[in-house]
Amino acid sequence: MNTPLYKALIQHARRNSHSFHVPGHHNGDVFFDDAKSIFNPLLTIDVTELAGLDDLHHPTGVIKEAQELVSQLYGSAESFFLVNGTTVGNLAMILSVCEPGDTILVQRNCHKSVFHAVDLAGAEPVYLAPDIDAALHVPTHVPLDTIKEALAAYPDAKGLVLTNPTYYGHSADLTEIISEAHRYGIPVLVDEAHGAHFVLGEPFPVSALKMGADIVVQSAHKTLPAMTMGSYLHLNSSCRIDRDRVAEYLTRLQSSSPSYPIMASLDIARAYVEHIIEEQKLSDILQRIQSLKQTFDSLTNAEAVKPADPRIITDPLKLTIRSKRGHSGYTLQNILERVNIFTELADENQVLLVLPLGGKRRINVETIKSIDEEIEKMPPDQMFVSAEWGAQPVTVLPYQKKVLQTFKKEYVDFDEAAGRLNADDIIPYPPGIPMIMAGERMTKESVQKLSRLISMKTHVQGNMKIKEKQLLVYIEEEKS
Ligand SMILES: Cc1ncc(COP(=O)(O)O)c(C=O)c1O
Prior knowledge:
By secondary structure, this protein is of the alpha+beta class. Helices cover 35% and strands 16% of the residues. The chain is built from 15 helices and 19 strands. Helix 3 packs parallel to helix 10. Keywords: Decarboxylase, Lyase, Pyridoxal phosphate. GO terms for molecular function: carboxy-lyase activity.
């Protein structure tokens, strides 16, 4: 296992040194005994920038080496370790390309961190509506025609931000889209949070890095064996973005005490991918995944669902299951939890499972089969409603952000909200895609959908009164 950072940490831990430095657990010595057995092995490598352990914010030693190994594997010009997830990568890449007032083209079904970045940059977003898949009723990718329309209307945009694959593992061919943006000299920034394993090649979809995107961020922790918050940011060799700006923003946005266990796990995750390739482990892993899928498929009362759009390639690590007896995804998720199966997310129609890239634990086939019985016990509650993003493929907010800031706000009941300007990001979580954003106008349909989600007890991030069916809206007639 070629893991320079992890190795240096282990060597340091073996010295059994006297710690007169942070963190305050002093190599695990200062810790409640009750919790020690769980935390202790990790605390021995939870150190700080000691001699030989390099510095994430100015890497010249083992962190630099570990990052270079990532870059070699992914074929990037340069790769960075992130200790605050793809969230911080999205923030840094967007802040690196735009200044206040600049226009940026953004796929509307991006993760909230993308929109937060646009806000922090003070940029003006142009939203690009995604297609909705007819089988899964979830948003997928932005069609090429929409991209062309947006580029023609906003040729001075500072960037095009896309998400590929989606949370559901739906991946599109971005090659034409990327070259179209590049024709305008516009860099393409891709949130590939769910695609760190695409580097393994077929049958996984192609990474945006290979398709020519300028900058790509991946949550190693989502599909590779890395600790939560561990992500990679890659710059492509022909990157149209200033490398030093990206590095500077990462330094500003990430902790000055980055977690060594997280960084070490990023080193190990890369080695794990290399191990799969070198030892030709992929076919065994895929076989296991296939047999797991077959078991779910053999259920009488539930089925695996695939996208209707034949252009979409679904990541083999994702499995979407739907009840055949008219249950919402939320109810199906509850049913699965009763038999001790915990899933990644549920929506109105289905649940999403993230399958493991290897590992040893096997699930008993009987456990999966028992779902059939549990489904029969539950009354149906599914309403089968399709997602939608409105009629216009390319939209801007009714008011610029700086104008919005001048409006007063008030709470209104859901039944009075249609037609009003929403003043709060409303985000079902997961997947963390804002359903209605601050500055967007509420429609009858969006309020109805929100009302449905609340009554289904979906976890929705937003203002504190949302559960009381009240929404925060701007008063367009009144300046604060
Ligand atoms: C598409 C997408 N982008 C970004 C993120 C944020 O990633 P992280 O949790 O690594 O910060 C998520 C999280 O779920 C996501 O689904």
